[in-house]
């Protein structure tokens, strides 16, 4: 049978190379896509192929990681998310400042800002709910996430003029801590869909939380965990709804982080020990004090002339 080395090797097509490069880029840990891109560039040794891969991968990565970029007029930061994306994939709405930022995905910077049009913003009725929720969330994020960012978008019913119809707000929370000089990077991402159901006077809250961490000092250890949850509250005034929804988010995020801390603090004491069988298949401990009872040991000792 021929060795694998003797088999003819088929050259990958440009399409296959680009798809492989995109996979590595989009799956890079938080804050590390530029390091991955540098390595891919040296491996591909083809600028046109490299440029095609990064042009497709960076927007996907940036939106998946909810990266926060400072706007050039210093009016605030904009989150790059699918919920704020405006046609073309390079413009992103910042609801808090009612501005649209133009983003260079590969450089991960905002290049310019323009005022949002009336068609891009929710009605005054919806904005009343959005603004007070945004205010409460900013307080929570400032308390809980150093350098964290949040934004509230209207994704359904933004043109509703008053009570009597359903609408949906989406909360995005993003926090990252990058310390490559200490060989570690990490991020927190959460998305909360807030459905205001007027007919049954209920606000339904559905959340997804994601935690990513990468530690690479003399090794490569990654954490990628997520958790989904649901809750609800009574539809009240905009101010009361904002307070209730923020408390729900605070409760579930705190509960999830606490459960993660407890799980990983028990790794060395419980989980790792459970991975190892306490007794061999024979259900008896190995007699290290009397190994001469085994024929193999006797034979080796006899051969080497060290019999007792």
Q: Could you walk me through the main structural features you see in this protein, from its secondary elements to its overall organization?
A:
With 308 residues, this protein is of the alpha+beta class. It contains 7 helices and 11 strands. It has helices at 14-26, 33-44, 47-64, 124-144, 238-265, 267-274, 295-304; strands spanning 68-70, 77-79, 85-86, 91-94, 99-104, 109-115, 149-156, 167-179, 184-197, 202-215, 221-234. It has a 5-stranded antiparallel sheet. A hairpin with a 4-residue loop joins β3 and β4. α4 packs parallel to α5 (238-265). The longest helix has 28 residues, at 238-265. It is globular. The model has no long low-confidence stretch (mean pLDDT 88). InterPro entries: CapZ_alpha, CapZ_alpha/beta, CapZ_alpha/beta_2, CapZ_alpha_1, F-actin_cap_asu_CS. One of its GO terms (biological process) is barbed-end actin filament capping. Keywords: Actin capping, Actin-binding.
Low-pLDDT ranges: none
Mean pLDDT, nearest integer? Answer: 88
SSE run: HHHEEEEEEHEEEEEHHH
How many whole angstroms does the radius of gyration measure?
28 Å
Write a concise synopsis of the structure shown.
The protein is of the alpha+beta class. The protein has seven helices and eleven strands. The longest helix is centred in the C-terminal third of the chain and has 28 residues, at about 240-265.
Labels describing this entry:
308 residues, alpha+beta, five-stranded antiparallel sheet, four-stranded antiparallel sheet, 36% helix, 29% strand
């Amino acid at each position: 049978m021929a060795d694998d080395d003797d088999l003819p090797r088929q050259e990958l097509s440009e399409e296959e190379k680009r798809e492989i490069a995109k996979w590595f880029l989009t799956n890079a840990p938080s804050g590390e896509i530029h390091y991955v891109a540098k390595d891919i560039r040296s491996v591909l040794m083809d600028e046109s192929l490299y440029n095609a891969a990064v042009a497709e991968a960076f927007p996907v990565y940036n939106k998946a990681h909810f990266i926060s970029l400072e706007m050039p007029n210093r009016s605030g930061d904009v989150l790059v998310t699918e919920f704020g994306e405006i046609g073309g994939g390079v413009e992103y709405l910042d609801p808090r400042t009612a501005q649209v930022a133009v983003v260079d995905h590969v450089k991960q910077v905002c290049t310019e800002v323009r005022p949002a049009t009336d068609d891009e913003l929710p009605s005054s009725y919806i904005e009343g709910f959005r603004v007070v929720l945004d205010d409460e969330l900013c307080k929570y994020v400032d308390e809980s996430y150093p350098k964290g960012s949040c934004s509230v978008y209207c994704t359904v019913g933004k043109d509703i003029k008053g009570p009597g119809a359903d609408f949906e707000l989406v909360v995005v929370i993003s926090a990252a801590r990058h310390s490559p000089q200490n060989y570690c990077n990490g991020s927190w991402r959460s998305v909360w869909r807030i459905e205001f159901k007027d007919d049954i006077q209920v606000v339904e809250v559905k959340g997804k939380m994601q935690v990513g961490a990468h530690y690479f000092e003399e090794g490569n250890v990654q954490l990628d965990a997520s958790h989904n949850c649901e809750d609800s509250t009574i539809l009240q005034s905009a101010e009361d709804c904002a307070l209730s929804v923020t408390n729900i988010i605070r409760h579930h995020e705190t509960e999830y982080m606490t459960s993660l801390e407890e799980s990983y603090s028990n790794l060395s004491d419980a989980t790792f020990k459970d991975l190892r069988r306490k007794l061999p298949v024979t259900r008896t401990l190995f007699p290290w004090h009397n190994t001469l009872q085994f024929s193999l040991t006797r034979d080796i000792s006899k051969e080497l002339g060290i019999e007792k």
